[in-house]
Design goal:
The chain has 505 residues and is α+β, with helices and mostly antiparallel strands. It contains 19 helices and 12 strands.
Amino acid sequence: MENSIFPYVPYLVAFLALILLLEQISYLKKKRFLPGPAFVFPVIGNVVTLVTNPTKFWDDQSALAKTNAAGISVNYIIGRFILYIHSTDLSHKVFSNVRPDAFHLIGHPFGKKLFGEHNLIYMFGQEHKDLRRRIAPNFTPKALATYTEIQQRIIIKHLACWLKRSSDSPSEPIPLRILCRDMNLETSQTVFAGPYLSGEARRRFNVDYTFFNVGLMKLPIDLPGFAFRNARLAVDRLVETLSLCAEQSQEKMETGEEPTCLIDFWMQEAVREINEAKQNPGEIGGGFVYNPKEIGGHLFDFLFAAQDASTSSLLWAVTLLDSHPGVLERVRTEVRKFWSPESGNPIAAEHLREMKYVEAVAREVLRFRAPATLVPHIAGVDFPLTENYIVPKGTIVFPSVLDSSFQGFPEPEKFDPERFMEERQEDRVYKKNFLAFGAGPHQCVGQRYAINHLMLFIAVFTALIDFRRHRTDGCDDIAYVPTIAPKDDCKVFLSQRCINFPSLN
């Protein structure tokens, strides 16, 4: 048997060598004159560096892009040619051309396999516009005011736990990353699904979300025992749980009750639209019905968008306020004008809108450390990105939101909330460089909710707690987990600042 196979081994080796050579030639043909590795490992490309040290991988891509007049660089990951965009103008060109015959927003290099086909970001044209219209009632001032009290109640509850942990071991700094993640997960669950998630459902939800989070940063191997498979199956279970929440909410809204969470606001609008369709079955849209499974999928999309990005922003807010005591003191002064922790009342939605400096700090945190640093798209066709370069079909394109944040603005390396105050209006003058929420037709629909959450955390945290960073070499370096966070997970010492800790239960 061995003798019968042996003569074919040289031919097999030659065949494999030819395939790998053609792969290398294909890469170089797509690369053309752009900066990037001259040689890439067969099949896997540079995925090892991406997985083991994503910070270095993306820093290297950014540095290479800066050497090119167009502001772009290339690489190769698991059989996929990738294009990194440093240029703000080219990033806008990608964002504004999300359509079937141009770029497709994918959210994650292997997002469709991980998230499924239900995701809002995969939609185009009228279908996408219609869904965004139906989502809009979830983020009206009335809805946001409802969420504000929920957010504060959960923030205060978790801060009390953080203080207890700190007082139990006062000499040990507390890493905030996991604590912030857990707080944000409870906030998202309560704001989005409200009373429809039981205690047991929340426990399972937390386990599945951990599976999902781990799988985001792993190789896309969809086989039993691998983190990516666990993540994909966890998403299916999470969507099913949220679908049941949507069904229960619809039943409640059909009785005419007032909304108490995001899914209620959504289902209230759904009930209105369903009733109109029943009354006018012959008109366009007549007979319209909502699919609970689709709603569950979109709710998961919201949760994913809110969860890790928000955790990143909260960690950087603590880090930057600690290193800028003048900014911190001004924040505390403004918060005192509108809220007393001892009052037992939450920060009112109208008072939150009056905290102009706190909002400026929140926006500067988002500019300085944009949580969604990269927004992956895929080229659906050969697309002329510049006069000299056509992006090949199938290329994964990474516009860098973080790089854009450091272009245009005066002294961009300086953390300076004043730039977002009315006197300087840099948010208007350099609007195109502030891409923390994207741009174009897929710009984040929940950006006001995200800013409110960051503002509430900054206001409540600074009013209730004295904090000090445990500073070590490189502690503030960027780590991808999967959004960016301080390398040391933001270790702090905490102590209670106010005399009577508030309770909003």
